[in-house]
Amino acid sequence: MPDTILRSRTQTVVMGPGRPFVIIGERINPTGRKKLAAEMLAGDFSRVRQDAMAQVAAGAHILDVNAGLGVANPEELEPHILAEAIRQVQEVVDVPICIDSSVIPALKAGLEVAHGKPIVNSVTAEEERLEAILPLVAEKGAAVIALPNDESGISYDPRVRFQLAKKIVERAERYGIPREDVIIDPLTMPAGAVPGSAKTVIQVVRMVSEELGCNTTCGASNISFGLPNRKALNATFIAMVIAAGMTSAITNPLEPEIMTAIRAANALMGYDENCAAWIASQQPPQEEGEEGARRGRRRTRRSRRR
Length: 306
Ligand code: THG
Fold this sequence. Notes:
Helix content is 49%, strand content 14%.
C-alpha cells in the first residue's frame, strides 16, 4: 500500500501501513469549547497557539485546525478566522496542517495560507462537493480526507461506505490526485447512539486498505460522545482500529491514556523497531543539569539491582 506524504514548511510526515500511527491533534476546534470559540471570534489566538505547542510537545505529528464557530453566517466569517488560526499555528510549530471545515470558501482560504503539503478535511461523495473541492486539492497538490456519505446520507452498511470511498478515489484520480493522497475516514458515529459503531469502522478500514490500497483516519473522540469515562473508550477504540490497519487518527495527544494506547499498539503491531519508542516512553523523565544527571545515575543503579 502506498505511503501518504505530508509536509509543513520544513518537516515531512509519512503515513503508511507498517509505520508508526500518525497522530493528528484535534484540540484546535471550538466545537464544545465555549471559551476558545469566544476568543477566536474576538481575534484572540493565544489559546490556539498554546494548544498548538502543547499538542506537538505531546507527540502530535499533524495539527487539525477547525474554526467552526456555529455562527449564522459561516461563509462570511469562517474563511478569515480559519486562515488566521492556521497562520498563528504555523508561527509557533512546524508540522503539517489538516484544514478542517465543511465550508468550501474556508477550505480555499486555508489552502492559501497553509505551508507545504496540507490535508483538506474533508470531501464527501456528494456531487457538488466532489466537483468543488477536488480541483482545489489538485491545484495545491494537497492530500484530502474522504468521508463515505452522499446525498442520501450516512449508511450503516460497511459495503455501501466502501463503494462511496471507491467512488471518491476514482473521481480524485480523474482530477490528477493520486490515490495515496486520498485518506479514507470510515465515519465514526458515537457508540452510545449507534450500536456496533466501532465494528463498522473496523470493517470499512479492512476493505479500504485491502481493496483500495488507501490510508485511513477517523475522528476518534466521536466514538465516546455522551458516555462516561471517554478516555478509556477513546484509548481502547484507537488500539482496536490500529489492529484493523488504520494508519492515522484525529485525536487528543494531551490525554496520556490515548498516547499510551497508541505507543503500545505500535509496539505490538511491529511498527516500533525493537520496541525502542515504547521502552523510551516508559523511562522516568530526564532532569536538567548536573544535580538531575546525578539523580538519574542513582536511579539507574537502583533499578539495575531490582
Ligand atoms: N472526521 C474528520 N474530521 C473530524 C471529525 C471526524 N473533525 C472534527 C471531529 N470529527 C474530530 N475532532 C474532535 C475534536 C474534539 C472532540 C471530538 C472530536 C471532543 N471535544 C470535547 C467535547 O466536545 O466534549 C471538548 C474538549 C474540551 O472541552 O476541551 O470530544 O470524525 N475527518
